[in-house]
Sequence to fold (289 residues):
Amino acid sequence: MILVEPNPLPIRIHDRAVVARERAQAARAALADCQLCAHHCGVNRLAGEQGLCHAGAEARVFSTQLEVGDELELLPTFAIALSGCDLRCSFCITGAESWNPRVGEPLCTATLAAQAEAAMKTGARTAMILGGEPTVHLPAALEIVAVLPPSLRLIWKTNAHGTALARTWLEGLFDVWLADYKFGNDHCAERLAGVPRYQNVVRENLAWASHHSELIVRHLLMPGHVDCCWEPIARWLAAELPAVKVSLRSGFWPAWRATNHPELSRPFSLTELQSAWTIARSYSLRLIE
Fold:
């Protein structure tokens, strides 16, 4: 059982910008000893040192668009994708951008604010900050929060590999955490994404998020990983977070470097999909589309 602190008081919408700006300054100063993700590299990014994510002090944006391919209750959403990530998932659909923090355009918050206003006029109800992984660019993400229209619901799309320090700066700012729970065991996480001690880190972040915002846990079904990854995840969610919404994604495609792993060299099969849904129903998970 993972223990988390009680629900905090939410930040009022009209205070969001002020709080985000204050936290952005503190988060930027902390880049001198970077502890934003669970790799705990401790490098001085302000001086040009690089940790495992290779990110520097400044963020870049590789995509901004009105997105209609995410969970239905979040759409339409204005999605802002920051370059760079602390995981190295072989099957990443945006691997070239997610692995490289130097692609895309330099962050301009004024431009993003204008784009968000335009997106609202064409139907956007939410704004999503994602990556790559936005946690590695937390100061920039907070600067973005400070300029987004207050009427937009904010979504933090994350791999849930951040630290308690990162969570202190995120607390109360986002309406929804959309968190990936990718692997059901540490062996698959290290083999497919190069990340150790995955289970403890992700579970701690999910438990925290469930008490501090609305939480949607997303799992991408992977060929050959129903029994080793999806079933343990489903079992844990049913036991620890039974009320949490679960988004089961079946659109796996052998992208990026997936073919380095034989079982990931093909699409997800109909037989595996049926098995995955049977597992979800057996644990009475709160599935959403």
The chain is about 35% helix and 15% strand. Residues 14-288 form a domain with the TIM Barrel fold (CATH 3.20.20.70).
